Amino acid sequence: MPLSWLLVGILAWFLMGAALSAKARRGMGRGVIDYFLANRTVGGFVSAMSYSATTYSAFMMVGLVGLTYKGGITSLGFELTYLVGTVFLLVLFAPRYWLAGRRYGLMTPSELLSTRYGSKWVGATASLLCLVTLIPYASVQLMGMGYLLEGVSGGVFPFWAGMAVAAVITVVFSVWAGLRSVALTDALQASIMLVVCCLLVAFIALFLFPGGWMNAMETRPDLLKVSWPFPMFLGLTLPWTFFALTNPQVVQRLYAPKDIRSIRGMVAGFSAFGFLYTVLCVLLGLSAALLVPGLKNPDGAMAALLTKVPRGLALLVVLSIFAAAVSTLNSIILTLSSMFGRDLLRAVIPLSEERELAWGKLLIPVLTVACYAFGSLKLGLIAVLSSMASAGLMAQLPVILGAFFWKRATAAGAIAGMAAGATVTGALYVGKINFLGQWPPVWGLAASVGAFVLVSLATQPDPAGAAFIDTVQSDVRETFWSSQKA
Amino acid sequence: MSKTEKKWALFGVAALIMNVVFPYGPLKGLEGPGGAFLFWCVTTLVVIGAGVAVMSRWGERSDFRCR
Questions:
Q1: Across residues A325-354, what is the average pLDDT?
Q2: Does the beta-carbon distance from B16 to A480 stay under 8 Å?
Q3: To the nearest whole angstrom, how far is the Cα of A285 from the nearest Cα of chain B?
Q4: Backbone angles phi, psi at B46, to 5 degrees
Q5: Which residues from chain A sit within 8 angstroms of residue B4, using beta carbons?
Q6: Cβ B37–A73 below 8 Å, yes or no?
Q7: Which one is predicted more confidently, A31 or B8?
């Protein structure tokens, strides 16, 4: 693809996003809640599209297509199990996070843990875990953009320049107006992702399979069979199933909707988006297996597929993948910068709201540069760290569940649970050890649950923790379920 | 938890377990779109539909105050 096409396409898309950012900035107030949570006034449609764009990264159009190309429809089960888990968890936990956020004035997911467990060190531990695991994950988004632009331009657009363009756009979309800007640009980017994916599938079905897609699939019935080994399916699916609770960039979104109708719109809209986008990406992977068989690197399946479609459509697809990466990256960076000020800095030094906001804004470019530096190393280890991210974040799962439902849980238990889970997961991933045939997330979760329960039972709980659970439960009952008895 | 939330929690856990057990059990050897592909799509749509039904029973109070 000519470099001029790429540059014009990226510039047009950036200008649209920048215009939305400028619009968002006009309505912005001064405080941290306004900056990081859009003053808790986000409507249902923008919440749904922003949640979708934050969740679905470049992995879908590159990684999921590649997984399907290589292993058939088991990847559909992996992604749809994640979606089922997310819908299940959001219906239960979105009201709790939303109400707790308003009652206690919470801004970050880790701050909820600090409040519930009565210890700032619980939130600091959770934030540290998120920083360590999400910076490599975020840097992989930048690397993906570097490789994508280098690949489709035939090497004319160098790897470092692709990463740099994505990094600059991320900073502009994030720092200008915080979540107001990120949510609006995310909504634009999610729309691009879905529309372009529909166009690509429609073009392939109509023009590349003139005899019908189903007839073509009959030549490869193996692709429609469950083929992954069960430990692989469990190892990949388990951390993703709990993504909605363990990944701070999506949990923080639960504080932002303006009312109950907006929360409902967010969950329903995200569910519809997720189902459609997942099925379309899997269909693309299956189509690639039929149209461009024999690739050594399955992650190159999408790029190979794009050689079969008109250049204009291919450019739109490249832009949609770019949009998916940037929308995930800017949300992660914004959330991590808020956690750094609220949960880490304030744990060690007193900080006024103005200084906290200044630190948060400063951290956005700093974290983006850190991701750029990490990505530019091109370490093989990054792939390991990337897959470790969601598994490492799962060390928070028992602590989060205990925060809402187990009054006996203690701060010491929470810290021990997160430390044990993260250590076991990290050690097994780095050592490439699948103990008893099971992948590291299984053992990481077991270690986290074990340490959390044992240390909690051995220490004294803070009475304020039980009060937190009762208060949130009472608020949920009165606000969401006022017509029903408990 | 309200009664509906308890039922939703049981339903959700059952759906997640089914999502793994059926494709790796009775449907494992089946080739073609009528096997695991259809099962995963239908299960997901049923869960989404049930989730929307549960959320439709949420109250409409909008007077919850920030601290």
A1: 90
A2: no
A3: 14
A4: -65, -45
A5: 481, 484
A6: yes
A7: B8
Q: How confident is the model at residue A30 (pLDDT cuts 50, 70, 90)?
A: confident
Mean pLDDT for A122-132 is 95
Block residue for tokens 């799509």: B41
Number of domains in chain A: 1
Q: Where are the beta strands (DSSP E) in A336-399?
A: none
CATH code where residue A306 lies: 1.20.1730.10
Give domain status of residue A417, yes or no: no
Q: What is the DSSP letter of A42?
A: B
Q: Cβ contacts (< 8 Å) between B60 and chain A: which residues?
A: 260-261
Digit-coded pLDDT (tens) for A358-371: 999 999 999 999 99
Residue A446 lies in a domain: no
Q: How far apart are CA A357 and CA A359, in angstroms?
A: 5
* Residue A296 belongs to domain spanning: 3-382
| Residue A65 is assigned to a structural domain of this protein | yes
Give B67's contacts in chain A (Cβ within 8 Å).
Answer: 102-105
Do A241 and B33 count as a contact with CB atoms less than 8 A apart? no
Residue A2 structure tokens: 């000519």
Lowest mean pLDDT among A48-57, A126-135, A432-441: A432-441
Contact criterion met (CB < 8 Å) for B19 and A81 = yes
Q: How far is CA A412 from the centre of its chain?
A: 28
How close A268 gets to chain B, by Cα (Å)?
6
CA–CA separation, A448 and A159 (whole Å) = 39
> Is the pLDDT score of B60 beyond 70?
no
Q: Are the beta carbons of A87 and B51 separated by less than 8 Å?
A: yes
Does A260 contact B47 at a Cβ distance shorter than 8 Å? no
CB within 8 Å of A231: residues ≥ 6 apart: A434, A437, A438, A439
A chain contacts of residue B52, beta-carbon cutoff 8 Å:
268, 271
* Tens-digit pLDDT profile for residues A78-96: 999 999 999 999 999 999 9
* Domain annotation covers residue A449: no
